[in-house]
Design goal:
Layout (H helix, E strand, L loop, with lengths): L6 H13 L6 H32 L6 H27 L4 H45 L7 H84 L4 H50 L9 H6 L5 H12 L23 H5 L2 H11 L25
């Protein structure tokens, strides 16, 4: 049978049990965290109830001793327990969770509790100050003193206390408003930052979409090119392309020759018309003395002064209808250059009329285009 353990061994085993560190599982940690959160909230409710009770007692100045000796001590004890529970709760939180919890929950509540205790302390001091003034005034009263003087001193002390309480309440209200204002400013800054971030994210998304479209299009183009390159080229297609490329210079040469021939044809037609009109004029303008024998006429043609005047007049007559009567535009007994209706018409109407009548834009003559005109005229009106 083994010997019973000695008192030293029992003490060492007890100390080992006392110093042993408990290792909690995840579930145990979660349960402990929940318990501390519940306990802290319960303690805060007790503090709120106690503060309401003290507020009711502070309405009567005669309760100052009861508030100072009993209620304030109880409130301070509850506040200390509230702080201890908060410290214990912090052991189960991460660093980021601690900062968020203390900033958003614990610090505002603790600040309200401290402000309340300070307000109660000021109230007690004011009451004690008034009582001291009353006691001093009573001690200093002599038979010569009047009741009105004592009452005046008491009322002055009461007025001072009320005024200080009003100033303190004003400062507390301003501090609360400042906190709200700061919170609103922080929210506005955060909102602007979120809005800017949203705009940047939207632009990035749009850019990514465009790049994807471009990439898909490039891939499609490369695929089409690869398919086209992989298709076998027919011999007939190659020969047709070679014949076409070889015929291009000859086609251009034929086009230039056709333009030249057309210009020559219309130019010769114009010269032929002008020459024919000159011949008709000379035939009608021959003098009587020139009508002799055919031998003399053919051998030595004589050009008299009258014949020369008629020939010079014939040279001034244009071989087209633009400078003859009637007018081609209004069909009245005047030339086109004298037509007021033509002058007053718009530039577009003039252009359409010249194009429709087949007249050259440079000399208003028929038979050739403006680019081939060799007798360009200048308008005397514009």
């Amino acid at each position: 049978m083994a010997d019973p353990p000695s008192s030293d061994e029992e003490g060492s085993s007890a100390s080992e049990k006392h110093t042993r560190v408990q290792v909690h599982t995840g579930k145990g940690l979660k349960e402990n965290l929940h318990q501390f959160i519940t306990a802290r909230r319960s303690k805060l409710r007790l503090l709120t109830t106690k503060s309401n009770q003290i507020e009711g007692l502070m309405e009567d100045d005669n309760n100052v001793i009861h508030v100072e000796q009993i209620e304030v001590k109880g409130y301070k004890k509850l506040y200390e327990e509230f702080v201890e529970l908060n410290q214990s709760l912090k052991l189960y939180l991460r660093e980021d969770e601690i900062e968020a919890d203390q900033t958003s929950w614990f610090e505002p509540k603790a600040s309200c509790c401290r402000d309340f205790m300070e307000r109660v302390k000021t109230w007690i001091e004011d009451i004690q100050l008034c009582e001291n003034l009353i006691m001093t005034s009573v001690k200093d009263i002599t038979p010569m003193d009047s009741v009105s003087n004592v009452s005046s001193q008491i009322s002055s002390a009461t007025s001072v206390r009320r005024r200080e309480e009003a100033n303190k309440a004003t400062l507390i209200a301003r501090a609360a408003a400042l906190k709200k204002k700061r919170a609103i400013a922080l929210k506005e800054v955060q909102l602007r930052a979120d809005q800017e971030q949203l705009e940047i994210d939207t632009e990035l998304a749009a850019l990514a979409a465009r790049l994807k479209i471009y990439a898909d299009y490039d891939a499609l183009q490369q695929q089409s090119s690869a398919i086209a390159m992989s298709q076998p080229c027919q011999q007939g297609d190659i020969e047709g392309q070679i014949r076409y490329e070889a015929s291009v210079p000859s086609l251009k040469h034929q086009e230039r020759e056709a333009k030249s021939i057309i210009g020559q044809m219309f130019g010769n037609l114009l010269e032929f018309t002008a020459a024919k009109e000159k011949i008709d004029i000379t035939q009608h303008a021959k003098p009587e003395e020139e009508r002799g024998s055919s031998f003399v006429k053919n051998a030595t043609p004589v050009k008299t002064e009258r014949f020369n005047r008629q020939m010079s007049k014939a040279d001034t007559i244009h071989p087209n209808g633009a400078f003859t009567k009637p007018c081609l535009f209004c069909e009245r007994n005047r030339t086109l250059e004298e037509c007021q209706k033509m002058i007053k018409s718009s530039r577009k109407d003039k252009f359409e009329f010249l194009k429709k009548s087949g007249l050259c834009f440079g000399c208003l003559a028929k038979g050739h285009a403006s680019k081939d005109c060799k007798k360009r005229m200048t308008c005397s009106v514009c």
